[in-house]
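Curious: can you check?
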Amino acid sequence: MNSITGIIITLNEENNIADCITSLRQVCNEIVVVDSGSSDHTVTIAEEMGAVIMIQPYLGDGFQKNVGLPKAGNDWILSLDADERLTDEMVSAIRELDLEKTTVDAFAFPRRNYVGSRWIRHCGWYPDVCVRLFHRGRTKFREVKQHSYVETKNFTRLKGDIVHYSFRNVGELFAKPGRNFTTRGAKIMYEQGKRAGALSPLIHGLNSFLRQYFLKRGFLDGVDGLTVSLSSAVYSYLKYAKLLEYQRDPEVLKNEDFRKIW
């Protein structure tokens, strides 16, 4: 088996961490868990399963995913989120690699995104190709606070998928944007100097729905495609509405802690 270190970033992932580590163990001889302050049993479970634990308050997506690189005992890194799994086909593809002789910096995987047990095949949710297996001496995640990715053009796409259990149900699909992701996005945009106009929430929300439902053929997924497209519209609307609120309400801005991304 190739010498690969699996790295997982976590926050309150006790329901996912064991299955994620088990999935990575099929191709990795070392697991590093970078936890950002879980209040549940995430760290205990990971320790019991033999993972190396690092505690790091959340720095933002790309920064956090790079924290574990110096701790890894191998140069090849396989990064998964706690709610992601390798398919049997992907496990076979990774096992067949000769990482000692490869000339590429990284390998990319198509990703299947699910709501509940339902695979969303359209809306831009598949194939959703992600570079996740990479040589840490040649590349790493881009150090940005959200929507990070491994910075390389020298990669090969493997056959097989990884599975992403994005949302446990429709309620979570709509609850997550309102609870944290939209606030994070609005904070980052505000700090970057971006500003919204009075119609920005409506325009961005409508554009997001039209793009996912029609251009990315969400209608082919039936009611799930409609639901996912609507949730994307809600996310975009709320993100720009919060950005606009920071601009027009000094009291809200004063009470917001921009040091805390979440």
Observations:
- The mean pLDDT is 95.
